[in-house]
Amino acid sequence: MNASMLSYMLFSCLLLSVQAHNCSVREIIRYTKHLLGESSVSCPCRETAVSSCSCLPIPEPGHELACFVEGTEHMLKNNILNHNTSNTIIARLNLTFQTQLDRKLCESLARGNQCQYKTKGNVKEFFNKILRTYQAINK
C-alpha cells in the first residue's frame, strides 16, 4: 500500500467519524433503544381505519431526517406514549433531528426538507427505522 492510498484511507475514516459525531449517533441509538424497550405499541398501522394505532412515515432514502422530525412531532402532539420520560426523550430526539436538518448535518439523511415515504408504520416500526438508520452510520 502506497502513502497516498494510506492517507486517503485515513482521511475517509476521519470523515466518517466526523459525520458520526455530528449526527449524535450514539445518543440517538441509546434513546431509541430505550424507547423501544418502553414502547408496547406494536399494533398494525391502518391509515383508513380509525384506530388507536399511530401511523408514522417510514422514510425513503435521503429523506430520513425530515420524516423523523415529522414522526416525532406527531407523537408529541398526540401524546402517543403517555409517559413523561418517554415524551421528554421524544422531544429531545425531535430537537436533535430538527437541528441536523436545519444545519445540514448528516447529509446522507437529508437530501430534502420534505418527508417522502411510500409506507407508514406503527411506533415500533418507526423507532426501528431510526435505530437501523443511525446504526448504519455508526459502522
UniProtKB/TrEMBL annotation:
Q: Which GO terms describe its molecular function?
A: cytokine activity; interleukin-9 receptor binding
Q: Which sequence ranges form a coiled-coil region, renumbered to this chain?
A: none
Where would one find the signal peptide in this protein?
Answer: 1-20
The organism's place on the tree of life at top rank:
Eukaryota
Q: Which keywords describe this protein according to UniProt?
A: Signal
Taken from the UniProt entry, a GO cellular component term is:
extracellular space
InterPro entries hit by this protein: IL-9 (IPR020447)
For this entry, the protein name equals Interleukin-9
